[in-house]
TrEMBL record:
InterPro entries: MACPF
Residue ranges annotated for the MACPF domain, each copy included: 152-355
Organism: uncultured Dysgonomonas sp
Name of the protein in its database record: MACPF domain-containing protein
N-terminal signal peptide: 1-23
């Protein structure tokens, strides 16, 4: 009897609602599932074919401090006559040709923070700190149209994480102060100091001189995504730490998906964090080794994941195809330190500092 009464009450309640309301007037708000933003990029966009640079000796060459990260494409013209220096002061030259492998990861809530962290990793000197507002290697992102669009008003919303895997087969260094090198400047550099403007000198020779470098092969895997920040509910918290945690889980998920993890699979990423990575892409580029063995380019991860035969590529390293893969920023010599004329030195120093400042990533 009790069940029948309850059923009757429910029936009456239903009739009372339907009787006093028009079906057109009564609506129930059902929250819509958030639609995934779609990346219109092709599944894979290959990099332009790059020749083997085969720059066997980089000591004494100019280098653009703001260029791509530890790359041959940032190397400029000879500043030092390195053959003369090595003939006259062989004791000031260190050459270590042992082999070893290593890797590191870096992340940033945006492009500026990413290059800042990359700069900090490459500069380990307490005595030569880099100003907080200056990043090296800004061109690693800034000059790469596949990773950065300076005209995109939403550029600041993209986060980056990367892993870089190295195989070193040689380290080379000069143990000399700038004033030990005045007698070893190339004839061209001496002439250009007196005949070219400061900006032209920077264009030809870069901003610094390479005093130490490591050659071998390096694989860069750079992950970019747009983190969903809708869960940030605390107004005074900018979410930077959370964003970098989410982007790191994003690249870990990607590496596990393609079966590549230099340090072992480790703990699986938080899948809830992975889902916060919108329109993800993976940029792959190799330095050194046989370029044909790595499908370098950009992968739209909404459409395709790469297939990499990394072990075969690692086995392809030779003396002839080794490339610049690492350097210490503290071992770069500012070009103006090699200019004896005080007026020209000051002019060049000011121009270099302005050039580096102008090459920083700035969000509109």
């Amino acid at each position: 009897m009790k069940k029948k009464i309850n059923a009757l009450i429910l029936c009456c309640l239903f009739l009372s609602f339907t009787g006093c309301s028009n079906s057109d007037d009564f609506t129930v708000d059902v929250p819509e599932e958030k639609q995934e933003e779609v990346n219109p990029m092709d599944a894979f966009t290959p990099l332009k074919s790059k020749p083997i640079t085969n720059k066997k000796d980089l000591l004494g060459k100019g280098y653009d401090y703001t260029g791509s990260y530890a790359s041959d494409i940032s190397v400029r013209e000879n500043v030092l006559d390195i053959d003369k220096f090595l003939n006259e002061k062989p004791e000031r030259y260190d050459k270590m040709e042992s082999t070893q492998s290593s890797n590191f990861t870096v992340s940033g809530a945006n492009a500026w923070r990413y290059t800042k962290h990359l700069t900090n990793i490459s500069n380990d000197s307490y005595w030569n700190p880099i100003p907080d507002n200056i990043n090296a290697f800004s061109g690693f992102i800034l000059d790469n149209e596949m990773l950065y669009n300076k005209d995109d008003k939403n550029a600041k919303d993209y986060s980056f994480a990367s892993i870089h895997y190295y195989f070193h087969n040689g380290k080379y260094a000069l143990n000399a102060r700038p004033d030990d090198l005045f007698d070893y400047l190339t004839v061209d550099f001496r002439n250009d100091i007196t005949s070219l403007s400061a900006n032209k000198i920077i264009e030809k020779y870069g901003t610094h001189v390479i005093g130490e470098y490591i050659k071998g092969m390096r694989l860069d895997l750079i992950y970019k995504s747009k983190i969903d920040k809708s869960g940030y509910t605390t107004p005074e918290y900018d979410g930077i730490s959370y964003t970098e945690e989410y982007i790191e889980d994003g690249i870990r998920h990607t590496l596990r998906s393609i079966g590549y993890w230099p340090n072992g699979p480790g703990n699986p990423p938080d899948e809830n964090n992975v889902k916060l990575n919108g329109i993800p892409i993976l940029y792959i580029e190799n330095h050194g080794g046989d370029n044909s063995l790595i499908p370098s380019g950009v992968y739209n991860l909404q459409k395709q994941y790469p297939q990499l035969n990394i072990n075969k590529w690692f086995q392809s390293l030779t003396e002839d195809n080794a490339a610049l893969v690492d350097l210490n920023l503290d071992k770069l010599i500012p070009i103006y330190e090699l200019v004896t004329d005080e007026l020209k030195k000051t002019e060049l120093q000011n121009a270099i500092e302005k050039y580096i400042k102008d090459r920083q990533i700035v969000f509109k």
